[in-house]
Backbone:
């Protein structure tokens, strides 16, 4: 029952936990740092390269982002790029692909044209690509037959770029963040694996006592819980965030056997369906075969491809009549109802491929059932947060900060893109709380434009 004390202790070794570990080690005078990770390695859950879409969501082709939101996401997304460039990780874990938002049919074509003009100033590299240009850049999007003789009947247009970094193996980036954190400082920067945090207690002297599954106990002046859906689970155990519940939305992918698309092709999104951005792109971890997805299916467990966590799901859902009302309101909407039902069928063997192909044909009209396979072992879980007071599904990330030296973060998509931005927010809070020094000039120089 060892007892170790740290200035700051982080729970969870995904991209969020390692980003904070890095920023504190590199840019503050924190005296000691500890990261506790439940599994045998960093990033084995949602930050793993095969679990997510590997996309840097900067806001240029994400059609559900307003211009105001894109101004914010641009800064945080660029931090990912700057980190990778600083350590020469381009073309190793960060790659440049062509990317576009594709409009199909009269209405979407107008939408893309208007959006292009609105966003051009913020993202000057954006180009507008008509059908002739698309024949050259992404021919499978244009033709309705495999021989590429017949152009699809609906009008199409795309806004996109070929000059930007677009894709990251966020699992490898988590490892790079932890390695660079440990290289950046002489202070203790301990990482303990196979160490699941079971409970956190606030002590009378305002520090925290952290209990783990292997019976080791730690104490810390500040604790940040970056444990995905389990952040809310641990918050509830301490009596925080009771006004929230967690809805784990699993995302799966389908994979082609060969190279289909040259870059990322996203579609115009339905704003009612925040996690429904079906797209196709080359997978950097599967010899650039094309992945289509992700799907969205509610899963009664908090972790994909790991045993257990069913009971944790029921506890974290925090079920009561507010949750019933949220589900009722969501399912009243025909678009959402059909989407939920369809995504359930996308997971049912024998019929799943046929149904999925129908949706994916909006991107590649000639895609056949035999061209794709369910990508076994790929995909993860987005911990979508339910706000029980407002009786609404929260569309983005959520953070609980009671102001007493502990923070809990829940990070559905695009949480990997915003990892360094979220860490910056928490680092400021820690610096203030512990009265630390922060090298702001170096931070801004290294990580922002
Ligand atoms: C299908 C899909 C597609 C996505 N696509 C994108 C994308 O293209 N771009 C993007 O930016 N984002 C994307 N995301 C979101 C992104 O993957 C997540 O936001 C991000 O990985 C969250 O990182 P995290 O570190 O907060 O959580 P996680 O990666 O889930 O890490 C949490 C860590 O905490 C550990 N842990 C949990 N409980 C405990 C405990 N009790 N004690 C100790 N450790 C614990 C876990 O083992 C894990 O290592 C996608 C997500 C999904 C599911």
Residues:
């Amino acid at each position: 029952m060892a007892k170790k004390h740290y200035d700051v202790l982080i729970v969870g070794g995904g991209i969020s936990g390692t980003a904070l570990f890095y920023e504190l080690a590199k840019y503050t005078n924190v005296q000691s740092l500890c990261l506790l990770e439940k599994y045998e390695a960093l990033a084995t859950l949602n930050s793993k390269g095969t679990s997510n879409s590997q996309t840097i969501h900067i806001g240029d082709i994400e059609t559900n982002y307003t211009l105001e939101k894109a101004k914010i996401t641009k800064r945080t997304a660029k931090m990912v790029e700057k980190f990778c460039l600083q350590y020469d990780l381009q073309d190793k874990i960060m790659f440049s692909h062509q990317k576009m938002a594709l409009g199909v049919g009269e209405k979407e074509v107008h939408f893309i044209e208007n959006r292009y003009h609105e966003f051009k100033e913020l993202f000057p590299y954006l180009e507008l690509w008509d059908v002739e240009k698309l024949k050259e850049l992404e021919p499978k999007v244009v033709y309705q037959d495999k021989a590429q003789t017949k152009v699809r009947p609906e009008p199409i247009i795309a806004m996109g770029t070929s000059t930007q970094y677009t894709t990251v193996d966020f699992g490898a980036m988590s490892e790079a963040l932890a390695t660079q954190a440990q290289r950046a400082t002489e202070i203790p920067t301990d990482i303990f694996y196979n160490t699941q945090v079971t409970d956190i207690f606030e002590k009378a002297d305002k520090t925290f006592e952290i209990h783990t599954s292997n019976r080791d106990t730690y104490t810390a002046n500040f604790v940040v819980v970056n444990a995905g859906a389990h952040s809310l689970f641990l918050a509830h155990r301490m009596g925080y965030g009771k006004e929230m519940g967690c809805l784990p939305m699993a995302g799966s992918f389908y994979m082609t056997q060969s190279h289909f698309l040259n870059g990322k092709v996203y579609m115009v999104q339905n704003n009612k369906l925040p996690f429904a951005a079906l797209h196709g792109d080359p997978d950097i971890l599967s010899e650039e075969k094309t992945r289509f997805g992700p799907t969205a299916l509610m899963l009664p467990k908090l972790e994909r491809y790991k045993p257990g966590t069913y009971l944790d799901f029921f506890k974290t859902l925090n079920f009561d009549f507010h949750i019933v009302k949220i589900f009722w309101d969501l399912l009243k909407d025909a678009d959402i109802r059909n989407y939920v039902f369809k995504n359930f069928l996308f997971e049912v063997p024998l019929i799943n491929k046929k149904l999925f192909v129908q949706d994916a044909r909006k991107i590649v009209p000639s895609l056949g059932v035999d061209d794709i396979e369910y990508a076994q072992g790929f995909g993860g879980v987005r911990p979508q947060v339910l706000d029980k007071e407002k009786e609404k599904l929260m569309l983005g990330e959520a953070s609980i900060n009671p102001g007493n030296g502990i923070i809990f973060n829940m990070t559905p998509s695009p949480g990997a893109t915003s990892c360094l931005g979220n860490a910056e927010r928490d680092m400021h809070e820690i610096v203030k709380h512990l009265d630390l020094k922060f090298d702001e000039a170096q931070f801004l120089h290294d990580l922002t434009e």
